[in-house]
Amino acid sequence: MGSRPTIVHVAKEAGLSKATVARVLNQQTDISVRKETRLRVQSAAESLGYVPNKLAASLRSSRTNNIAISISDISNPFFPELVRGAQDTLSKRGYNMIILNNDWDQETEREQFNVIKRTLVDGVILAPSRLDLDLSCLGTIPVIILGNSDAYPSYDSIGNNSRAGVELAFERLHSLKHRRIGLVLGGSSKLETSAWRIQIYRDFHQKHGLMLDENLITRCKFTVRASDSFIMARDPIKRLLKLERRPTAIFASNDILALSVLQVANELGIAVPNELSVIGMGDVFAASASSPPLTTICKQRYKLGKLAAERLLDLLSSPEIVAQKAPLKIRLACKLIERGTTSIL
Amino acid sequence: MGSRPTIVHVAKEAGLSKATVARVLNQQTDISVRKETRLRVQSAAESLGYVPNKLAASLRSSRTNNIAISISDISNPFFPELVRGAQDTLSKRGYNMIILNNDWDQETEREQFNVIKRTLVDGVILAPSRLDLDLSCLGTIPVIILGNSDAYPSYDSIGNNSRAGVELAFERLHSLKHRRIGLVLGGSSKLETSAWRIQIYRDFHQKHGLMLDENLITRCKFTVRASDSFIMARDPIKRLLKLERRPTAIFASNDILALSVLQVANELGIAVPNELSVIGMGDVFAASASSPPLTTICKQRYKLGKLAAERLLDLLSSPEIVAQKAPLKIRLACKLIERGTTSIL
DNA sequence: GAAAACAATGAGAACGTTCTCATAGGGAGT
DNA sequence: ACTCCCTATGAGAACGTTCTCATTGTTTTC
Q1: Which residue gives the smallest C-alpha to C1' distance to C13?
Q2: Got the DSSP string for A28-40?
Q3: Pairwise CB contact (< 8 Å): B81 & A75
Q4: How far is the CA of A28 from the C1' of D1 (A)?
Q5: How many separate domains does chain A show?
Q6: What is the model's pLDDT at position A106?
Q7: Which residue is closest, via its CA, to the C1' of D6?
Q8: Are A150 and A222 contained in the same domain?
Q9: Is residue B340 part of a domain?
Q10: Residues A217 and A210 sit within 8 Å (Cβ to Cβ)
Q11: A343 within domain boundaries
């Protein structure tokens, strides 16, 4: 009884068929309908308070205007802005977004692929929890991969050029005359083997003819919750800063760890940046709010999400054309944001 | 041709009708179906790789298993954890979540209400952008209001007891012998008129027989982007800290502002906590990562989302029962997290 | 002036489920 | 043996759209 009006009600009210009503309401520009008819439909819809049922439309047209984004954890400071970037782009074009958190867990992720298939999204933005995922089960749904790995060669992928970013950090510290540079890494996540960071670290030493001291490489547990990781990093960092020949500078592979360095240094009475320079990576909000504010390698999160969404929209609007080309690989440049934790030695 | 198998394909494969297949696949416990039949259906579904079409199911049953959450901005540090709390609860029960950002903009919010109606969500968790919204357009969709206002008396609402939290901060500073306490407020958001905070500030002074110095009340612009607010707060805070009789303690109405205080103090060479105690509010991640770590009034964000989701699920599973009761009003207690920015005078 | 083209609308199938009601089969009660 | 009931299954409508094709009326073309 109290159920909402459907397109047939509108049709009846306007004295037209539902086909015509649909034509008017979907604003198909290429279809001809008399101006007067158009108005009649519009006023009928208005007066009945008609709201189209998206489910029925999607079922028939097999376009849902939903896209799914699968990430590790929305409460990880890296993701909200990324999500926002994607969402702003998508909602402008009438798409809704469903966020799926996988917590770096493969089981969860697999379950989500099922959700994706059941729920019939038009496209997927995927930050893979690991590098060896089988995406074939997603069938023909367009997928954009987030990240900088080459593990999914046949898919479009968009990420930050983290390699170049890490090099940038080392080079900057070198140009500030630092020769004894600590490396703080977060491990345990399947995705970030951190092997490649160590490789860059080695290459950097070799390139500049520096002696590499393995004691300066510090590994920290890195878990799902940022605040936990922050705490757990304290002990290994404390060890690093208590070495008898402690580093004059530290590069941490993410801002959480870099902030942990800052805090430990503060407690040990080591003045930053005068006695210790620190560079983080990511440029999360907390980085700009520390005292002194953290120098960091900025990953473009908002833009990352935006580009992924734009690419997905392209794929959706013209699947054939885009499919012919080679997969898109975008690596956004990382920038050095020099704030207050770096100074010349 | 390549389209996915439907329930009729499964039925044909199993030599049964789609009704029976549906019975098996929906695990209705109260319905009788022979064990052998059940197995036949399951193996048929398995071998065809059948995935149910949620759209069709939703259309027929008018249950979508989607719920919408309307918030101001997912990239505001307050929200990700809240969303996560809700999401964890909902996904456990098979619900997906659609996040809508309104950017404190009424126009956007109104558009989103349309999205909600079109998309036929089962329920809504709503953090209203203002206190005078007309929610009647959402019809009979169950709605949970987030926040601590009494503006929506007929709806369930769940929020933090911010008033008590603010009092807690003042009382703590008082017990630490501070008598000259600055108040840093973030304005401009329609929701947070901050009038009530000033009232509490006045009441506090009166209660303890303290002289109230209007110069100690500082208003900062507070905008959509946390990082912008952080920067914009610097000038007013600097003025506050440069008063000839500057406060010995500061309470800021959110952590972003409190961190800004920390940073400005650091630049001015004011030692925290020895020369200045600071208490923030919110307990965002950045609060624990500052140096020294910020003492703050903790708002329970994860639990807030969790409770909202649980209540919504209750409403959905037994609408009649719950509807009879008076609207639920939950105010979560705020806790004082004493870290490194407070000390006795 | 008849045929052809076009513009505007209508009729009704289709999408893939759920759900209601009907029906077939078999055992229990009398 | 007849009715009754219960269990297991089937037939088909319904959900509210979109989309294809048909139809009507009007204009253009030769």
Answers
A1: A60
A2: -TTS---HHHHHH
A3: yes
A4: 70
A5: 3
A6: 87
A7: B32
A8: no
A9: no
A10: no
A11: no
